[in-house]
Amino acid sequence: MPKKNAPLELKPGMLLVSEPFLEDPSFHRSVVLLCEHSSSHSFGLVLNQRQEIVLDSYMDEKVMEDVPLYSGGPVDPTIMQFIHRRPDLIPDGIEIGEGIFWSGDFERAIELVVGGEIGFEEIKFFIGYSGWGAGQLDREVKSNAWMLHPAKAEYVFDEPTMNLWRKVLFDKGGDYRVLSTYPDDPNLN
Q: What's this model's pTM, rounded to 2 decimal places?
Protein backbone atom coordinates (compact mmCIF):
# COMPACT_ATOMS: atom_id res chain seq x y z
CA MET A 1 0.00 0.00 0.00
CA PRO A 2 1.22 3.51 -0.67
CA LYS A 3 2.41 5.57 2.26
CA LYS A 4 -0.06 8.14 3.50
CA ASN A 5 1.01 11.78 3.01
CA ALA A 6 -0.87 13.24 5.95
CA PRO A 7 -3.11 11.38 8.34
CA LEU A 8 -6.77 11.86 7.56
CA GLU A 9 -9.32 11.33 10.27
CA LEU A 10 -12.44 9.23 10.12
CA LYS A 11 -15.39 11.62 10.23
CA PRO A 12 -18.59 12.31 8.31
CA GLY A 13 -17.84 13.54 4.83
CA MET A 14 -14.83 11.30 4.25
CA LEU A 15 -14.68 8.78 1.45
CA LEU A 16 -13.59 5.23 2.19
CA VAL A 17 -11.93 3.84 -0.91
CA SER A 18 -11.47 0.06 -0.88
CA GLU A 19 -8.02 -1.33 -1.55
CA PRO A 20 -7.81 -2.92 -5.02
CA PHE A 21 -8.02 -6.55 -3.93
CA LEU A 22 -10.41 -6.34 -0.98
CA GLU A 23 -11.95 -9.80 -0.89
CA ASP A 24 -15.37 -8.83 0.46
CA PRO A 25 -17.63 -8.84 -2.65
CA SER A 26 -19.92 -6.25 -1.05
CA PHE A 27 -17.10 -3.73 -1.18
CA HIS A 28 -15.10 -4.70 -4.28
CA ARG A 29 -13.64 -1.44 -5.64
CA SER A 30 -16.21 0.54 -3.75
CA VAL A 31 -16.26 4.13 -2.57
CA VAL A 32 -18.23 4.67 0.63
CA LEU A 33 -19.40 8.08 1.82
CA LEU A 34 -19.04 8.12 5.61
CA CYS A 35 -22.23 9.64 7.09
CA GLU A 36 -21.63 8.98 10.81
CA HIS A 37 -18.61 7.98 12.85
CA SER A 38 -18.41 7.69 16.63
CA SER A 39 -16.78 5.49 19.24
CA SER A 40 -19.86 3.23 19.18
CA HIS A 41 -20.49 2.82 15.44
CA SER A 42 -19.85 3.99 11.90
CA PHE A 43 -22.28 4.23 9.02
CA GLY A 44 -21.91 5.03 5.32
CA LEU A 45 -23.34 4.61 1.83
CA VAL A 46 -21.61 2.96 -1.14
CA LEU A 47 -21.64 5.54 -3.92
CA ASN A 48 -20.68 3.40 -6.89
CA GLN A 49 -22.96 0.35 -6.81
CA ARG A 50 -25.92 1.33 -8.96
CA GLN A 51 -28.65 -1.29 -8.97
CA GLU A 52 -30.55 -2.70 -11.94
CA ILE A 53 -33.81 -1.97 -10.15
CA VAL A 54 -35.41 1.44 -9.89
CA LEU A 55 -37.27 3.28 -7.16
CA ASP A 56 -40.76 2.25 -8.29
CA SER A 57 -39.82 -1.29 -7.23
CA TYR A 58 -39.98 0.04 -3.67
CA MET A 59 -42.80 2.55 -4.02
CA ASP A 60 -46.30 2.44 -5.45
CA GLU A 61 -45.88 5.44 -7.70
CA LYS A 62 -45.21 4.48 -11.32
CA VAL A 63 -43.77 7.95 -11.90
CA MET A 64 -40.69 6.72 -10.05
CA GLU A 65 -39.78 4.15 -12.71
CA ASP A 66 -36.81 6.14 -13.99
CA VAL A 67 -35.28 6.92 -10.59
CA PRO A 68 -32.05 4.93 -10.14
CA LEU A 69 -31.29 3.16 -6.89
CA TYR A 70 -27.89 2.45 -5.40
CA SER A 71 -26.89 -0.24 -2.96
CA GLY A 72 -25.76 1.63 0.12
CA GLY A 73 -24.21 -1.55 1.47
CA PRO A 74 -25.00 -5.05 2.66
CA VAL A 75 -26.82 -4.10 5.88
CA ASP A 76 -30.65 -4.06 5.91
CA PRO A 77 -31.73 -3.62 2.29
CA THR A 78 -35.23 -2.66 3.48
CA ILE A 79 -33.98 0.75 4.61
CA MET A 80 -34.03 3.55 2.04
CA GLN A 81 -31.97 6.72 2.40
CA PHE A 82 -30.88 9.57 0.22
CA ILE A 83 -28.19 12.18 -0.18
CA HIS A 84 -28.58 15.46 -2.03
CA ARG A 85 -27.10 18.85 -2.68
CA ARG A 86 -30.26 20.93 -2.49
CA PRO A 87 -30.77 22.09 1.12
CA ASP A 88 -32.62 25.07 -0.31
CA LEU A 89 -35.38 22.72 -1.50
CA ILE A 90 -35.15 19.75 0.90
CA PRO A 91 -35.34 20.80 4.56
CA ASP A 92 -33.87 18.98 7.56
CA GLY A 93 -30.87 17.40 5.82
CA ILE A 94 -27.57 17.00 7.66
CA GLU A 95 -24.53 18.48 5.95
CA ILE A 96 -21.82 15.83 6.06
CA GLY A 97 -19.45 17.45 3.59
CA GLU A 98 -19.27 20.68 1.65
CA GLY A 99 -22.40 20.68 -0.51
CA ILE A 100 -23.33 17.10 0.50
CA PHE A 101 -26.45 16.55 2.60
CA TRP A 102 -27.69 13.28 4.05
CA SER A 103 -31.41 12.72 4.54
CA GLY A 104 -34.04 15.38 5.10
CA ASP A 105 -37.74 15.57 4.32
CA PHE A 106 -38.25 12.36 2.29
CA GLU A 107 -41.77 13.26 1.14
CA ARG A 108 -40.54 16.63 -0.15
CA ALA A 109 -37.60 14.97 -1.92
CA ILE A 110 -39.97 12.59 -3.71
CA GLU A 111 -42.28 15.47 -4.70
CA LEU A 112 -39.34 17.35 -6.18
CA VAL A 113 -38.12 14.32 -8.15
CA VAL A 114 -41.63 13.51 -9.43
CA GLY A 115 -42.18 17.16 -10.38
CA GLY A 116 -38.85 17.29 -12.24
CA GLU A 117 -37.56 20.06 -9.98
CA ILE A 118 -34.52 18.01 -8.91
CA GLY A 119 -32.41 15.99 -11.32
CA PHE A 120 -30.38 12.87 -10.63
CA GLU A 121 -27.20 14.94 -10.55
CA GLU A 122 -28.60 16.50 -7.35
CA ILE A 123 -29.99 13.51 -5.44
CA LYS A 124 -29.25 9.79 -5.01
CA PHE A 125 -31.40 7.12 -3.36
CA PHE A 126 -29.93 4.08 -1.58
CA ILE A 127 -31.23 0.78 -0.29
CA GLY A 128 -29.27 -0.74 2.55
CA TYR A 129 -26.20 0.75 4.16
CA SER A 130 -22.67 -0.03 5.28
CA GLY A 131 -22.22 -0.33 9.02
CA TRP A 132 -19.40 -1.02 11.44
CA GLY A 133 -19.44 -1.69 15.19
CA ALA A 134 -17.34 0.04 17.83
CA GLY A 135 -13.74 0.35 16.62
CA GLN A 136 -14.26 -1.93 13.62
CA LEU A 137 -13.79 0.69 10.92
CA ASP A 138 -10.74 2.14 12.70
CA ARG A 139 -9.15 -1.32 12.65
CA GLU A 140 -9.99 -1.83 8.97
CA VAL A 141 -8.41 1.53 8.05
CA LYS A 142 -5.29 0.70 10.08
CA SER A 143 -5.02 -2.65 8.27
CA ASN A 144 -5.16 -0.76 4.91
CA ALA A 145 -8.50 -2.23 3.80
CA TRP A 146 -9.66 1.37 3.22
CA MET A 147 -7.94 4.51 2.02
CA LEU A 148 -9.37 7.86 3.11
CA HIS A 149 -10.06 10.88 0.95
CA PRO A 150 -12.20 13.98 1.55
CA ALA A 151 -15.54 13.83 -0.25
CA LYS A 152 -16.43 16.42 -2.86
CA ALA A 153 -19.90 17.01 -4.25
CA GLU A 154 -18.46 16.36 -7.73
CA TYR A 155 -17.45 12.82 -6.73
CA VAL A 156 -20.80 12.12 -5.12
CA PHE A 157 -23.11 13.52 -7.78
CA ASP A 158 -21.24 14.11 -11.04
CA GLU A 159 -18.66 11.37 -11.54
CA PRO A 160 -20.00 8.29 -13.39
CA THR A 161 -20.22 5.40 -10.91
CA MET A 162 -18.06 3.09 -13.04
CA ASN A 163 -15.19 5.63 -12.90
CA LEU A 164 -15.48 6.78 -9.30
CA TRP A 165 -13.07 4.34 -7.61
CA ARG A 166 -10.31 5.05 -10.15
CA LYS A 167 -10.98 8.81 -10.17
CA VAL A 168 -10.66 9.21 -6.39
CA LEU A 169 -7.42 7.19 -6.27
CA PHE A 170 -6.01 9.11 -9.23
CA ASP A 171 -6.86 12.41 -7.54
CA LYS A 172 -5.08 11.33 -4.34
CA GLY A 173 -1.91 11.46 -6.42
CA GLY A 174 1.46 9.83 -5.89
CA ASP A 175 1.48 6.07 -5.52
CA TYR A 176 -2.32 6.04 -5.39
CA ARG A 177 -2.35 6.87 -9.10
CA VAL A 178 -0.59 3.56 -9.72
CA LEU A 179 -3.26 1.75 -7.69
CA SER A 180 -5.95 3.39 -9.80
CA THR A 181 -4.62 1.52 -12.84
CA TYR A 182 -4.67 -1.98 -11.28
CA PRO A 183 -6.83 -4.34 -13.31
CA ASP A 184 -9.65 -6.27 -11.63
CA ASP A 185 -7.79 -9.48 -12.37
CA PRO A 186 -4.15 -9.21 -11.19
CA ASN A 187 -3.20 -11.92 -13.69
CA LEU A 188 -3.81 -9.35 -16.43
CA ASN A 189 -1.12 -7.09 -14.99
A: 0.89
